[in-house]
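Hi R.,

Quick one: here's the ATP synthase subunit s-like protein sequence you asked about.
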Amino acid sequence: MNSLRRLFPLCPQQIFLAKRSSSNSRDLSDEENKLLYDKLMRKSYNEKNEEASSFIKWLIPHDKFGPPRIMSYDWSMKSIFNWMKRQNIEYNKYTQRYTVDRVKVLGSDLAAAHFFVYRNAAIRFRGQDNFIKWENKREEYNTDLPSTYEPNFFVEAIDASDVILYYQGLENLKNLYKLKWLRLKNNPVLNNWHLDYIGYAVPHLEYLDISDCPKVTAAGIAGLQKLTQLKELVINSNNIEIQMACFALEDVIPGLFVSIQSEDNLNSCNLVIEGNIDVNKS
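And here's the predicted structure, written out as tokens:
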């Protein structure tokens, strides 16, 4: 036995495997006892750290056994509604992404025209007087827009009022070299990052309406200095910082006129209009 041990020295990571099951610690040498003790200590430590697989750890949110993770979720109606709302936002962002296949078939201008008109916006081509819009949503999508590439169609104006456009949707503005007029009124998700991208994608813009966009701050207004050809900017805000940023923007861009409308005046005008409608109805 000892001769075999001399021929096969023990590795630091293994225990001598030739001992019988009835053997005890007295049959082992001091070195074998030490290795056995170290292995038992490591085994106990590993069991504590690896008591469950990664899947089990995903199901059980704590060390002690308890209800599955799926049962620990908040299944209230409010939580389900918030989850559906988040999923709807992600879906809209995905559908508004810039699609290369659409541009390959239609070109940049017609692809952008179809994108905005399908989402209840209106566009106008260069040389035309009327805006094109999908009027009847109940009918199948059918407009006067060409369905194949036409080289003489250039988007000159886009009216995207009351349309929720995310950052992914604004990427469809790139390569619109004839775009001069853009209205993004009443967009609750429009923020400073959107304005920064507009300054990058459409530097030749001459008219921009970003009124009723509550997420726009003074930093976003300052980022519009990239629009060196901008002639008119429409915004409504009672924020002093935003108003000062608009005045500074007028100094940076020659010939720019910033139309700052008060939110109180707009609200009062809406109340008057609604009151007149009610009176007429009665």
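The domain at 189-264 is CATH 3.80.10.10 (Leucine-rich repeat, LRR (right-handed beta-alpha superhelix)).

Cheers,
M.
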